[in-house]
Amino acid sequence: MVDGARPEASVDDAVRIEDDPVLPSRRGTSSPDERERVVAEALAHAEARDAVYRRPLADGSGWWKVALASLLLLLAAGFAVAPPAWLGKPAPVTLAAATRARGARLSLYLQARQVEAFRVVEGRLPLDLAEAGEALPGVRYLRSSGRVYQLVAVGPDGRAIVWDSTRPVPPIQREGARIPGVEGPS
User: Fold this and answer.
1) Which residues on neighbouring strands pair with residue 70, listed in sequence order?
2) Which of 134, 82, 137, 94 is nearest to 113 (CA)?
3) Residue 153's closest CA among 164, 165, 161, 141?
4) pLDDT tens readout for residues 104-121
5) What are phi and psi of 141, to 5 degrees?
6) Which of 27, 47, 153, 169 qualifies as a cystine partner to 104, CB 3.0-4.6 A?
7) What whole-number distance in Å separates Cα of residue 166 and Cα of residue 12?
């Protein structure tokens, strides 16, 4: 061996773990007795390791876990059925009348675009809004003839907001709302 050089380790120098069974190092075929002995050692080793985890719990050691889980389950069920006042309820969302009116006009505009797209593709007006695509809630469709229709929505003040297909300027533009791509009066 040269100074500073590390000696080469052999398989025999390796540290063997006491828990692991030792397999014979002989090469070639083994006899049936030797195979049975090795299998028996492996099974005994596995059985010894499994025995460590099969110890039963001491009597009465887990009662508090069952009691705590039951209490938490009852509390959760109580909060789900009747939430206490101190939890507080979220305030309902309220929109201003002007915002709701703009929303109704925008619904009419979007529904009219859907009807017009249907007319371009099919060459006719739809029989109802569902035929043109998804009907928006609160919008009614009135077909006057094969080329004229009206869309009606109820505004926040209870008055009807009407979209008439014969008018060149949509009512949404006259009310002051701006929609990209739609030109209002100049």
Assistant:
1) none
2) 134
3) 161
4) 888 888 888 888 889 889
5) -115, 120
6) 153
7) 98
